[in-house]
Design a protein that fits this description.
Number of domains: 2
Strand content: 35-45%
Structural class: alpha+beta
Strand order of the largest sheet: 6-7-8-3-9-10
Order of helices and strands: EEEHEEEHHHEHEHEEHHEEEEEEEEEE
CATH topology of the largest domain: Rossmann fold
Largest sheet: 6 strands, mixed
Radius of gyration: 25 Å
Shape: globular
CATH superfamily of the largest domain: P-loop containing nucleotide triphosphate hydrolases
Distance between the termini: 32 Å
Helix content: 10-25%
Length: 364
């Protein structure tokens, strides 16, 4: 097992099974730095929440070790791990006031009265709840209750804060507002946060790094821009943001690029990401906003004729679905300034894209 170094949290060869046969977490190795905001993102059943619960102490790993600040914590009970936790359902005490809810973790830790009052005051101010200290949770809005839950998780100055789908019960506008609130609180306090969500937009907005989970394993761990712009496999490309997929076969490797044949459509020049051999199947990944409408002749290496099948007006851009390369659901995001507002269903157009915007990924 590795020794102590800079990593604040380390998962080392973690496995988890409930029935002794199926692994819900598979050989997980991950390091989290002090002060980092790391999000575990993935679909239901991908292993992200189980991983968070093992870190919190509510689940025990079947194999491997979890280190916090260089110390193994598998045998440390949850209440002694010095970890704050925020759940989706807030888990506030309904019979207590906001101040009493915040006082509870301090009483458990036997913090003196004067110090507790000072910490509660700071936590209320941080969460912009100074005027609500004497109210009960039932007298607060969903967003206010979530801020109370966050303040309670932070009031005892924990080493680490865990958040499990904390915004899932909020409406879209409030959810987006709270994303920024939590991000600012993290920046102000510098506390280490491990956050779980299935919402890729939320993960992109808030995180320093994102671990994309699927089938019990991390598919890619990187900064938001790296994940979006440079996905390492087809699952990440599909799960992070909107993505066009074209299936084809590699006919030539050209160093860092490759030539891919699309059935009944011709060839495409693409970046070779995790493909190495001509003759192998591949999936091309292309973001809708990278596709150009009616490019000048010779300006792009990949140009195809397409037919508009649907237009959805979204204010700053028009989501345009076209039939191209044998695919009926190819999507382009076109700013109104590029003439998208003048298109109509059935229109014949030309579209194109750069080699570096199209990624050839392993199809297996």
């Amino acid at each position: 097992m590795p020794g102590t170094n800079e990593a604040f949290v380390r998962f080392w060869n973690i496995q988890k099974t409930y029935d002794g046969e199926t692994l819900v977490v598979k050989n997980l190795n991950m390091e989290i730095e002090r002060g980092e905001f790391l999000t575990m993102l993935g679909p239901s059943g991908s292993g992200k929440t189980t991983t968070l619960m093992m870190l919190a102490g509510f689940e025990a790993p079947t194999h491997g070790s979890i280190l916090l600040a260089g110390r193994s914590i598998e045998k440390v009970p949850p209440h002694k791990r010095d970890i704050g936790i925020v759940f989706q359902n807030y888990a506030l005490f309904p019979h207590m006031t906001v101040e009493e809810n915040l006082a509870f973790p301090l009483k458990v830790r036997k913090v003196g009265k004067a110090e507790a009052e000072a910490r509660i005051g700071r936590a209320l101010d941080m969460a912009r709840l100074g005027a609500y200290g004497r109210r009960r949770p039932g007298q607060l809005s969903g967003g206010q209750q979530q801020r109370v839950a966050l303040a309670r998780a932070l009031v005892f100055d924990p080493k680490l804060v865990l958040m499990d789908e904390p915004l899932g019960a909020l409406d879209k506008q409030l959810r987006e507002h709270m994303q920024i609130e939590i991000k600012h609180i993290h920046e102000d306090l510098g506390v280490t946060v491990v956050y779980v969500t299935h919402d890729q937009g939320e993960a992109l907005t808030m995180s320093d790094r994102i671990a994309v989970f699927n089938d019990g394993a991390i598919q890619q761990l990187a900064a938001p821009a790296e994940l979006y712009e440079r996905p390492q496999n087809a699952f990440v490309a599909e799960f992070i943001g909107e993505n066009n997929r074209l299936h084809g076969k590699i006919v030539a490797m050209n160093g860092t690029t490759c030539t891919v044949e699309i059935p009944s459509a011709g060839t495409v020049q693409a970046l070779a990401i995790n493909v190495e051999t001509a003759g192998r199947p591949t999936v091309l990944s292309l973001r809708p906003e990278r596709v150009k409408l009616n490019p000048a002749p010779g300006s792009l290496p990949n140009v195809f004729n397409a037919r508009v099948t649907e237009l959805i007006y979204l204010g700053d851009h028009v989501r345009t679905r076209v039939s191209v390369c044998g695919h009926e659901d190819f999507v382009i995001k076109l700013p109104n300034s590029e003439g998208a507002a003048h298109l109509e269903p059935g229109a014949e157009i030309t579209i194109g894209w750069k080699t570096e915007d199209c990624r050839a990924l392993d199809a297996s």
